[in-house]
Amino acid sequence: MPQKLRPDIDEYFLKIAKVVSERSTCIRRKIGAVAVKEKHILTTGYNGAASGIKDCLELGCLRDQNNIPSGSLTSVCRAIHAEENIIIQAALSGTSINGATIYCTTSPCSHCARLLVNAKIKRFVCFLSYTNIEAQEIFRQAGIEIDILPEPTFDPEKIKERVLAIDDITFRQAGFFTGFKDTNVNSFYRKIRSSVRYIDRDDAEINEEWKQIIPYVLVHKKDKYLVLKRLPKGKEKRLYEAYTFGVGGHINPLDSGTGDRGKDVIERGMHREIEEEIDTSKLKFKNIKLVGFIYDESQEVSRHHIGLLYDAEIENNRVGVRETKFLEPFMVSKKDLPNYLDGKENWAEIVYHSYINKK
After folding, report:
1. Domain boundaries, the chain
2. Among 29-33, 120-124, 131-135, 173-177, which stretch is predicted with the lowest mean pLDDT?
3. How high is the pLDDT of residue 281?
4. What fold, for 162-358?
5. 14 — alpha (psi -120 to 50), left (phi > 0) or beta?
């Protein structure tokens, strides 16, 4: 039998659903789901507490505390189910999942099955199944195909994070710069956007022929700016105790789904980063706009990244972060910002001197 060189479509999207499940805040069972149509990701969802509400990772499992066995009294739970979040996220972005296939790590409960029937999905694919078969009967009556496939395996040697990047030659042809660029912003953005592609992050981190695209969102209310302190439990050890003025991160293939939230993959990635890092449940954005670009050749790490600076003005000061173990937020007046320039993050220095201080 010839060696399988790559996963088929079902296995591919089931693997993505499995990765999505890692964001779950459920202690008992982490579930992830992906809505797909014509091989494009429409939206994703995982089980967890409602936005801005304390979850089981912080409070403990409500069902365990009440000795409720799996599959019973499902209403006694802090979590919104992954399939429910699929529908919610689709509604928020104005995306229809009519005719979509749902890839999920686990078969649905009967309640979620009924919701998906009314959302008019055409197929449900999973690799784990509850003993309760009521949901399968609901799908059968509604004419929705359900497939329970073998759980996909992950080869650690083959799993690589892929990030959006632009090659160095194109960057130089588009208009190479160092420091901060705030001229011809729209034209430069179009040139960058038309030439990006996904590459392995491991390669991008060491190969200077590629520049990774990083949205860097400056959040402020008038002259008070959000400053984030990176705590020791964060992933980037080189940035422990550093202060950053921007919210952002890498753009990955999950940002390539269709939908109306943002004009393209870069803007969708920017919005996702905001929602992942900031608790937006009590926050109102007045305006978010691209104002310039950041590139710094002075450090080896920064030579591999191009920052897209977004100015995000908010209407209130109620800013909190989701990952409180990794980040500590402050709202700092413009005149006090220099006190947070500690030299550990050059982009903060560039943004302050070249943009904030000139406003």
Report:
1. 9-148, 162-358
2. 131-135
3. 76
4. Nucleoside Triphosphate Pyrophosphohydrolase (3.90.79)
5. alpha
Catalytic site includes residue 209: no
Mean pLDDT score across all residues of the chain = 86
For position 97, what pLDDT does the model report?
96
Would you say 79 and 59 are in contact if contact means Cβ atoms under 8 Å apart?
A: no
Q: Are strands 101-104 and 32-37 parallel, antiparallel or unpaired?
A: antiparallel
Task: Determine which one of 83, 84, 273, 277 is catalytic.
Answer: 83
166-188 mean pLDDT: 93
pLDDT, residue 317, reads: 74
Superfamily designation of domain 9-148:
Cytidine Deaminase, domain 2 (3.40.140.10)
The pLDDT value recorded for residue 2 is 42
